Amino acid sequence: MTPIVDNRKPHEFRKYRLxxxxxxxxxxxxAPHSTxxxxxxxxxxxxxxxxxxxxxxxxxxxxxxxxxxxxxTGYDFAYRILSVYLIEEPLLLKDLIGKYGLNSAxxxxxxxxxxxxxxxxxxxxxxxxxxxxxYHD
Length: 137
Prior knowledge:
InterPro entries: PUA-like_sf (IPR015947). There is one protein chain. The protein is α+β, with helices and mostly antiparallel strands. The chain has four helices and six strands; from the N terminus they run αβββαβααββ. The chain is globular, with a radius of gyration of 16 Å. The two termini are 19 Å apart.
């Protein structure tokens, strides 16, 4: 998560295309954090099909994505991160399971339960940065 928060990793790379209606990724941090702590607004997927323009080379993972580095096999979708928000009161794993109905810690793609979306106003959380500017406390 740190490279995204620090704006050193400007894309989230996935092996699958998210639904076009998905505008944000809520990131779950594994142990010892075990929380959903950050929300990132994303742009639509960029692909690396023949004829597609490459993503800019600056940033962690961008060159590997463009050159199809062997360790990036299957990571065919790049989502530009437009902004990063810190959730003021991170969502604890025990609440994700007990209060919001998840069966276990989120892994891979898990759609956000409606109750979380209704309870947490993502745009009222602490904005860390957005594309084109950096916010500092």
